[in-house]
Predict the structure.
Amino acid sequence: MDPFISTVISLSSLALLCYWFRYSCLLILAAETARDYSEEVAKANQLSFREVLSKLRNDDTGNLDNLHRCLQRDFAIITYLLDHATTASAESFFEDAMLHAHYRVMNAWFRLTRAWSHEDATQALAEMSKVIRHFANCLGERTMAPASVDWI
């Protein structure tokens, strides 16, 4: 096969994979559950992602680096808590892994764009906040779910 055609096919496949990944992550983040536990989890663990999202929505960004540090702290706390919470299903494990990767990509995108594109950096922080909100809700669902009973 011609190397040019192989390269075009490979690059097209990579572009489609990236598009699928981003679209899937955005769908996961847009899904709503019957009850949102994120606020309770945020209060109980002193997470600031809700305030960051509020500032981003109201265009009260100030210093983006401070908002970024708050999100980094929140992400470290929430991932620690999720790692030590009850086990998740295989489906949520895959979604969690995808959202972890999405958070890291948005983190890298923020670092790349903060110097030259305030709008792109703000959008990256907003998506990072939504990932943390999703994880906080998952933590609430997992810890508030009724314990399974073994019948003998």
Notes: The longest helix spans residues 3-30.
